[in-house]
Write a structure and sequence with these properties.
Blueprint: E1 4-7, E2 10-12, E3 18-24, E4 31-39, E5 46-52, E6 57-59, E7 67-72, E8 77-82, E9 91-99, E10 104-106, E11 110-114
Parallel strand pairs: 2-11
Antiparallel strand pairs: 1-3, 3-8, 4-5, 4-9, 5-6, 7-8, 9-10, 9-11
């Protein structure tokens, strides 16, 4: 079972930038998609961005134009570049990996706090 480890969270001021990383514990193959989810206190977990193996992407409407998901398969890592962050972006961010055969893995989460 592959393990996913997120990093890069922290406290950032509104309008600032942050880059989240999620690294797999070993080389991985047969990927269907990588994704970032987030969950704020009292809210359900929501899909923020997804990138498929063919490079196609999906973004939550509220982050379009501000967040960018990308991968570096030489490092088995997915990134979420966050720009122009807003207080509403405050949440625990989780990395998700779906394999072509259907199994999925989750990271433990990294906290993002947007506050002045």
């Amino acid at each position: 079972q592959v393990q996913l480890v997120e990093s890069g969270g922290g406290v950032v001021q509104p309008g600032g930038s942050l880059r989240l990383s999620c690294a797999a514990s070993k080389s991985i193959f047969g990927i269907y998609s990588w994704a970032w989810y987030r969950q704020a206190p009292g809210n359900q977990r929501e899909l923020v961005a997804r990138i498929h193996s063919d490079g196609t992407t999906y973004y939550l409407d509220s982050v379009k134009g501000r967040f960018t998901i990308s991968t570096d398969m030489s490092e088995n890592t997915v990134y979420l570049q966050m720009r122009s962050v807003k207080p509403d972006d405050t949440a625990m961010y989780y990395c998700n990996l779906i394999f072509s055969e259907g199994s999925t893995s989750w990271g433990q989460g990294t906290q993002v706090i947007v506050s002045s």
